[in-house]
Specification:
Layout (H helix, E strand, L loop, with lengths): L13 H7 L5 H8 L8 E9 L6 E6 L16 H15 L6 E8 L2 E8 L1 H11 L2 H11 L1 H8 L29 E6 L5 E6 L6 H4 L15 H12 L14 H9 E2 L2 E2 L11 H8 L4 E9 L2 E10 L4 E9 L5 H6 L1
Antiparallel strand pairs: 1-2, 1-11, 3-4, 3-5, 5-6, 7-8, 9-10, 10-11
Length: about 325
């Protein structure tokens, strides 16, 4: 038994047993997680994938009221949302993800150039090192109004989520949302176009019930919605049309695995909290796709885990009101 494990020995592997045997229910997940760091508030959602690859079924479990709870800070996990939303927007514009995006803000009667990046570079850095700068630029590209009215909506699996805040405070990257934004797009073949937007001032955080850090300019989501995002990414080929993100097969492949030196969700970088001291102990050969988040008093990890040899597939979305990543490992 690893010395770092502080919960009762007889619960070790209980999560694995719940995954392997469909007789468990929500009360079973409560019983598994309750003794872990009992003084720490926790949130968790688990999706177990059963059946054939061509027609899987999904068993959902939630710890306590986690299914609808958004009373925690999502930290960097929500960077996944900006990655998918940016790709959907590019596809709507019929623009390649290898295009250069030149970010500008209006200063008086002129436009000030702040940065230039390709979408693939930004998304890779979000997964490789959880880049706050690239997350902020992705949010600047999509815009607060668009991401909250076109992507973070119930039809796409987000009844409670809101994104209002970037994660940097310095120029030239910071997204001062009251400033008009212009993004000039230079495609690989030299074609040029631009998009502009200015935030309407509507608080989507307040509209959706955010309470942490700010009820008007905070970010919010649930462990269920994080898990649902991964479900739609990893099972796109077998989902009904209304549950599919508007991504190409190539985009799905590299957001999952990365390619050409760029990083996707399949990595153990930037806080693999659910893997270390957790999933690794009972599924050491599994493939691990994840996005973690950490600030001083919240730690999170949302992961898709697949072990083909054992025919095990599940999505685990975990959050804890602590700055200690080991708690997430124990929960897993």
């Amino acid at each position: 038994m690893p010395q770092a494990t502080s919960y009762p020995w007889y619960l070790v592997g209980s999560l694995y047993l719940l995954i392997m045997h469909p007789s468990g229910d929500a009360a079973t997940l409560d019983a598994i997680l309750e003794p872990i760091a009992p003084s720490v508030r926790k949130w968790a959602s688990l999706v177990v994938v059963d059946g054939e690859e061509s027609s899987p079924s999904f068993r959902w479990y939630h710890y306590r009221d986690s299914e609808h709870a958004i009373d925690f800070w999502p930290a960097s996990t929500i960077k996944i949302y900006t990655a998918v939303a940016a790709l959907e927007y590019l596809n709507q514009l019929s623009v390649s993800s290898d295009s250069a995006l030149i970010f500008e803000r209006q200063v008086g009667d002129r436009w000030q150039v702040d940065a230039a990046r390709t979408p693939r570079e930004m998304i890779s850095e979000v997964f490789r090192r959880s880049s706050n700068e690239d997350y902020t630029l992705l949010l600047r590209f999509v815009g607060i109004d668009r991401i909250n009215t076109q992507f973070l909506i119930p039809e796409k699996g987000f009844p409670h989520s809101a994104l209002m805040r970037d994660y940097v405070v310095h120029r030239p990257v910071v997204y001062e949302n009251t400033e008009p934004q212009r993004i000039r797009i230079v495609e690989p073949d030299g074609k040029r176009r631009e998009v502009t937007h200015t935030w309407t001032g509507l608080s989507y955080a307040k509209q959706r019930g955010a309470t942490i850090l700010s009820d008007t300019t905070g970010n919010a989501t649930s462990t269920r919605e994080l898990a649902e995002c991964l479900r739609r990414i990893f099972f796109a080929e077998v989902l009904p049309p209304e549950e599919k993100y508007q991504l190409t097969d190539q985009q799905l492949a590299w957001i999952r695995h990365g390619e050409d030196g760029l990083v996707g969700l399949e990595n153990k970088s930037a806080g693999p909290y659910a893997w270390t001291d957790g999933i690794e102990t009972f599924l050491p050969n599994a493939r691990y796709f994840h996005k973690a988040g950490l600030i001083s008093n919240y730690v999170l990890d949302v992961a898709y885990v697949e072990d083909e040899a054992l025919n095990v597939k599940f999505i685990l979305s975990l959050a804890a009101h602590t700055g200690d990543g080991k708690v997430i490992g124990q929960m897993a």
